Amino acid sequence: MPRVRALSPKTIEAYRISLECFLGYLAEAEHTGREHVSFDHFDRQHLKEWLAWMTEQRHYTPRTVALRLSAVKAFLAYAAQEDITLVALSQAARALKTPAQPRKPVDYLTAPETRAILAAHTGNTPKSRRNRMLLILLYDTAARVSEITGLTLQDLSLTEPGHLTLTGKGNKTRVVPLTGKTIGHLRAYADITAASQSLLPQVGFE
After folding, report:
1. How far is CA 113 from CA 102, 109, 117, 125, 126, in A?
2. pTM over cut 0.90
């Protein structure tokens, strides 16, 4: 993990804790010492009982249970790559599902809160105009901050229908339409920015 996959020490520690948790279950519930543990103990039935043990005996949250199981799945996937006879064991583990995690309701900004945030940038300075434009784009496109800050002029189209080409995780791109108001803000921002740049001293430039 540290040399081939270059995982961080914290990630490696999380894997270790998860495997230790499974060994702890075998010692407590199955009375099996770690010196006697084999791949036979990683079958579907043992893993299902381990999930129940974590939930009912240890009272782990669904998030923790999912994390522990994912580490064991990763371990079995690695083992299957090294020994073809363990492929069926790994596939059986992959089919296991963890308890559903309760979803927390999403708290949205109210209309007055959104207006207050946008009004915080008056547009009197280049930095203020830039920040206000970024907020408008974030609001209109629901893009990630990294997607907005990574935009180039080639990603922007103001002709009908106006749209942005966003590049997200894994370099996957998607096209997001822009509302008429946002297109108007972009055109005004581009005009003001161009006018401001034309007033800059042309020292050292041809």
Report:
1. 27, 6, 6, 23, 24
2. no
